[in-house]
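The material for today's practical consists of a large collection of protein records. An example says more than a description, so a record of this kind follows:
***
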Amino acid sequence: MEEQAPSPPIDPTQSPQYKAMSKRVNRKMDIALLPFLSLLYLFNGLDRSNVGNAETQGFTRDIGASPDDLNLAVSLFFITFVLLQPPSAAVGRWVGAKHWITIIMLGWGVFTVAHAFIRGRNALIAMRLMIGAFEAGFYPTAVAYLSFFYCRYDMAVRVGLFYGQYAIAGAFSGSIAYGVFHLKGTRLHNWQYLFIIEGTLTILIAVVAWFWLPRSPGSAWFLNAEEQKFAAERILKDNAQYVAHEYGSDGGERQRLTRRDIVETGKDWKLWYVLVFNICASVPSQAFSVFLPLVVQGLGYSSIRANLMSVPPYVCGATGLYLFALSSDYHKERGYHIVGGIFIALVGLIITVTVHSSGAKYAGLCILLLGSYISPPLTVVWLSGNTPEPGKRSLVLGVNGFGNLAGVIGSQLYKRRYAPHYLFPSYVTIGFITVALVGYTAYKFSLQAVNSRKAEIMASKTAEEIEEERVDEARYADKKWTFIYGL
């Protein structure tokens, strides 16, 4: 009798019971963890962008500085903000996200309040440097923290919702500023109350964060014992084929950061390749996060109304990001979604600089922001999903923070001397967006070529050789022939 070939092993992650439990755990995390972490990022965005709102009320004039001093201060903010991201992300990895997020939030909250009482150019620069230093580690630490709770193809929607708070912060800041700037008969300037209110709220929410955030999925207070065990084991299985770590019973790692993590991060061609185009693509979102109220004011709106009219473009930015993030996870695809967002931003900016009526220019700004916020978070998710080693992943996300150098470019471009139409800055931004469009397309096809090469190598391997590749330390994490990059 002819022998039948053995049946392929059953993948437990495809069982109805596993899928139901995974959906239940994700739902609880989506209720208890994700909104709270998103709230923290909202305050991160508020305290970064509020100087633009304050400037519409004569902030630099009142403190004895000039508008160009504000551009310089914003540029220097991004210097500390960018340069300190990798070391701050490493500290966050070392001491734990729960503790580090609380510490850095308290720091930038205190210096936000201090903005209300500064005088002179040097004090302004010092405040922005300190805000940049404390805010530097928040985003990479928070995204790495989320990656310990959600699996690879559950991340884009969650990071999209999380990063969307950066756009919502612009809208929220404009709304708060619109209300605060209507105050009459006060002892302080209205912009001083803006800094005091937003900084104080940041400090309060930082204290709450220490009690709210769990250390790991296996110790999450909002999960029962069975769900905690499942959540911890699920993350281990998601990367078990490519990494080897010793874990505690709660899913927390014993060894959080190794020397090899640092070396392999520095040698990762994918990171440095995409970083250039991430900087180019981020120029619109970084520049308009601060200067949109001033650009809108240049369309003919009063200083107070310009803050209110800056809200709809930011809402468009958040909406575009959410829709693209949902589609990206559903289709398990990153590259074309990023390219699509960049293309929308390019169309919006071209409309803004070529039409003549204020209404059409404003519509162009809405389209511009609709696409501008898509590429940065999806790039983070792309890099995160293609870096299975948790220690290296934290450092990669920290180095990717160099993408915020776009803020230095934007702050130097959108100077008051180009007001009210800001044509020269817009033309330069079009150039950056075009380079990003070409670069990201090439990046996707580069990864596709590497995957084809890996598939050719693995096609000739036996089951024993595949298992040997898994445990062999010659190739690290994503460099293993068994790891296929997400496209």
